[in-house]
Amino acid sequence: MPYLEEIWQRKWVTNNGVFHRELEKQLCEYLGVEHLSLFSNGTLALITALQSMKITGEVITTPFSFVATTHALHWNGIKPVFADVDPVTMNLDPEKIEAAITPQTTAILPVHVYANPCDVERIETIADTYGLRVIYDAAHAFGVRIRDRSILEYGDMSVLSFHGTKVFNTFEGGAIICRDEKTKRRIDNLKNFGFVDETTVVAPGINGKMNEVQAAFGVLQLKYMDQVLAQRGAIDERYRKAFRNVNGLSMHDVPDYCTRNYSYFPLLVRPEFPLNRDELYEELRKHRIAARRYFYPLISEFPMYRGLPSSNAQNLPVATALSRQVLCLPIYPALEQEEQERIIEVILACAWRNRRAS
């Protein structure tokens, strides 16, 4: 309430207000980056990142992501080219990236799926070899570090989401992390209709500004991040302990040299499990448990993209298989241990069933 009273007293509710500036400053310090621009949501941030770099032609990306990743390309008039993913990390497979490059390719748009870092070093080598730009969709990867270096420092830009489902959120929100002050100024102009002063417009910008209420909520929430991560980590560990030796269930691991933010808990339901993924999903729904088939369907299977040559399922066998096996279990700080144990009990009960007749 004190923050809301401050906003009301100032009568400054948007357009780079006090809380907006404070949140940018605090996020730079927390994340270990120098140049960050806040946005009203992550999708507008990704659209603007591509616009700010004047990306055109073809961009190689993953089908195993939330659809906003590819929609941002579409809204910029860019042709998405889907490449398959690695079966372990579930991120873009560097070998498949290289095989998908054509004379029209201008950039790579990888996603750090479930906050598991992409193979950033190999992607950087590929980009340098072929003269490509790299924009990371880091929507899941708030606070993740690789060998004590922020994951957001890799590539030309990284884009965060602060949607209500994320580890850190501002109800809706997002940010672009870039490499220099000049680029940040261009991004800040673009998110404010292209204005540089009261009467001068230098680019066909958009309205992507974060308002003061969102920013104040972010400043408040940032104070509790250590507690949030500890709570999520405890939930993650209980799931891992429960399912570690269950035949037909496998869990997503992050390398030891990476920090984890416990943003999701994806469970892969393999053919050896008595129920297939969709049967387990429906069983959980019967018990009013909100698991998600995340990501299913693949982006490449949606009507606006399935006509692309790269959307052919034969081009994406790993991503296709994962999308039919993955099930993300509830994980959030307020999830009580008793409720989590109920979720675990339902899944373990299913593990003892005989497979249904097909």
TrEMBL record:
Residue stretches spanning the membrane: none
EC number of the protein: 2.6.1.-
GO molecular function annotations of the record: transaminase activity
SUPFAM superfamilies the record matches: PLP-dependent transferases
Keywords associated with the record: Aminotransferase, Pyridoxal phosphate, Transferase
Gene3D superfamilies for this protein: Type I PLP-dependent aspartate aminotransferase-like (Major domain)
Matches recorded under InterPro entries: DegT/StrS_aminotransferase, PyrdxlP-dep_Trfase, PyrdxlP-dep_Trfase_major
Lyase in keyword set: no
Top enzyme class: transferase
Family under the similarity heading: Belongs to the DegT/DnrJ/EryC1 family.
Annotated protein name in UniProt: DegT/DnrJ/EryC1/StrS family aminotransferase
Species annotation: Paraburkholderia azotifigens
Organism ancestry: Bacteria, Pseudomonadati, Pseudomonadota, Betaproteobacteria, Burkholderiales
